[in-house]
């Protein structure tokens, strides 16, 4: 029994050595900075195609297209549409015109048109921020915006036969 007691005592002392260890903790941060960004691309835009009209037509010709924008959530932005490459007066959205693409046509080669922000075609979509641009706040997802086009009384332009086209630049400002 005498030898058992010192062995038990030694085991008891060894078990207290393991309990004497200590622990410490700390914290650290995990961070990222998100900067605002917006995109609007040609691949996301759809043409405003009026199709075919008679040169004598007095009825308005309406057509729709769209532009798609994606911005960082909660970012305010404006989408501007240029006056087009054939405007009667440079940078004047009230003088938008499509030009006849037939090389043989030399007279009556423009048809006036307008682009609007609303289905009722009452709010011109232009390029002056705060005046006639489309103003929105981003959701973080793709947002598709219709572009409403109108040729008012096509015969008033006395158009020559052929295909007409204009190129609009869409710009997003944020």
From TrEMBL:
Organism superkingdom:
Bacteria
What SMART domains does the entry give?
SCPU (SM00972)
Q: Name one Pfam family in it.
A: SCPU
Q: Where is the Spore coat protein U/FanG domain?
A: 25-171
Keywords, in A-Z order: Capsid protein, Signal, Virion
UniProt signal peptide: 1-22
The cross-references to InterPro entries, in alphabetical order and at most eight, read: Spore_coat_component (IPR053167), Spore_coat_U/FanG (IPR007893)
- What name is this protein filed under? SCPU domain-containing protein
What is the organism lineage in this UniProt record? Bacteria, Pseudomonadati, Pseudomonadota, Gammaproteobacteria, Lysobacterales
């Amino acid at each position: 029994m005498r030898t058992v007691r010192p062995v038990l005592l030694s085991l008891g002392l060894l078990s207290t050595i393991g309990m004497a260890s200590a622990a410490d903790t700390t914290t650290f941060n995990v961070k990222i900075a998100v900067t605002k960004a917006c995109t609007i691309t040609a691949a996301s835009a759809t043409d405003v195609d009026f199709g075919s009209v008679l040169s004598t037509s007095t009825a308005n010709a309406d057509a729709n297209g769209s532009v798609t924008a994606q911005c960082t959530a909660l970012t305010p932005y404006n989408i501007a549409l240029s006056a087009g490459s054939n405007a009667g007066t440079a940078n004047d959205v009230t003088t938008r015109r499509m030009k006849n693409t037939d090389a043989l046509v030399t007279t009556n080669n423009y048809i006036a048109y307008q682009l609007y922000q609303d289905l009722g075609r009452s709010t011109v979509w232009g390029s002056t921020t705060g005046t006639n641009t489309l103003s929105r706040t981003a959701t973080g997802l793709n947002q598709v915006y219709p572009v409403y086009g109108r040729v008012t009384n096509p015969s008033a332009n006395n158009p020559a036969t052929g295909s007409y086209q204009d190129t609009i630049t869409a710009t997003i400002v944020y």
